[in-house]
Design goal:
24% strand, 4 strands, alpha+beta, Alpha-Beta Plaits, single chain
Length: 103
């Protein structure tokens, strides 16, 4: 199954806080679970979640059956509002070796 790195890059993303002025943190941690269930509904498994500092607010490492499932999951989350994303396809070491061997 392909692996993906999803970077939430918008400071308006409401998980765990909304830097556009929301300082109410009550219930924010439950949003992680709701987003995870949303991804799961599209066949995407969240493997790791990290709150980060710097350019991006969060990084999610996930797994999807194919690129189409990942795209659908991301677009579904974007449609709910408040986020922008940057998604990268990650290749496993074995996949990387196969690519190199095919050259």
């Amino acid at each position: 199954m392909p692996g993906y790195e999803v970077i939430y890059a918008n400071l308006r993303f409401t998980l765990p806080m909304d830097c556009a002025g929301d300082t109410t943190f009550e219930g924010k941690s439950q949003q992680i679970g709701r987003r995870e269930k949303g991804f799961a509904a599209d066949g995407v498994k969240i493997l790791h979640f990290y709150m980060t500092t710097g350019t991006h607010d969060m990084v999610i490492i996930s797994e999807a059956p194919n690129d189409e499932a990942m795209a659908k999951a991301i677009l579904t989350q974007i449609a709910k509002g408040g986020i922008t994303t940057q998604t990268s396809r990650a290749f496993t070491e074995d996949e990387y070796r196969a690519i190199l061997d095919s050259l």
